[in-house]
Amino acid sequence: DAGVIQSPRHEVTEMGQEVTLRCKPISGHNSLFWYRQTMMRGLELLIYFNNNVPIDDSGMPEDRFSAKMPNASFSTLKIQPSEPRDSAVYFCASRTGGGTEAFFGQGTRLTVV
Amino acid sequence: GQSLEQPSEVTAVEGAIVQINCTYQTSGFYGLSWYQQHDGGAPTFLSYNALDGLEETGRFSSFLSRSDSYGYLLLQELQMKDSASYFCAVYGGATNKLIFGTGTLLAVQP
User: Fold this and answer.
1) B20, B55, B44, B72: which is closest to A43 by C-alpha?
2) String of DSSP letters for A2-68
């Protein structure tokens, strides 16, 4: 398997623009996590899906952030409108239902100018 | 809520042994994991403890004490390539979500 695939790897956008980050989990994994990593706040869990259903979105910072998982092989994280403070590395991770290991994608480095 | 505390930085020399501690507060605890992250890379899984005691995987060992809400990662025979950030993480809360600690930056010196 190719692992968790995220796109794009890098994104530079202007403040106010919409940004969409994409994630393809490992086939057969039914849990998917979105994290944001910054120096100040570390690795923050944004949202967690199980069997394509959002289980916990308590980490989503505000209404500008939304996430979807329309099927088992694809998820998106959208920021609209984007702000400079959203600049961070965004990671997607997946795991099997009974598994203990979360597999991370290579991340999307987002810069909002 | 959930919180995990780790030292921010640790320095050690090649060949030495280092221990990285983690204390946690969470409801509905399921297990403690450790992840390694090299600069610019993705976190990668090292170990998982659900029960009290020591788990050994090669040069790395991980310990858990559920009664003390405490665990540690032990790295032996340190190598330069072990220089990285190390995160403890818990599965917990009502939704069994995976929450990460603040991370410990390990610098291995020659």
Assistant:
1) B44
2) ---EEE-SEEEE-TT--EEEEEEPPTT--EEEEEEEETTTEEEEEEEEETTEEEE-TT--STTEEEE
Buried b (16+ CB within 10 A) or exposed e, B11-42: ebeeeeebebebbbebeebbbbbbbbbeeeeb
Q: Which of A6, A33, A43, A90 to mutate to test the interface with B (most CBs of B within 10 A)?
A: A43
Under a CB-based contact definition with an 8 Å cutoff, are residues B88 and B94 in contact? no
> Average of pLDDT values for A85-100?
93
Rounded Cα gap, residues A78 and A96, in angstroms: 24
The 10s digit of each residue's pLDDT in B28-73 is: 888 999 999 999 999 999 999 999 999 998 999 999 999 999 999 9
CB-CB under 8 Å, B45 with A103: yes
Residue among B6, B45, B48 with most chain A CBs within 10 A, to mutate: B45
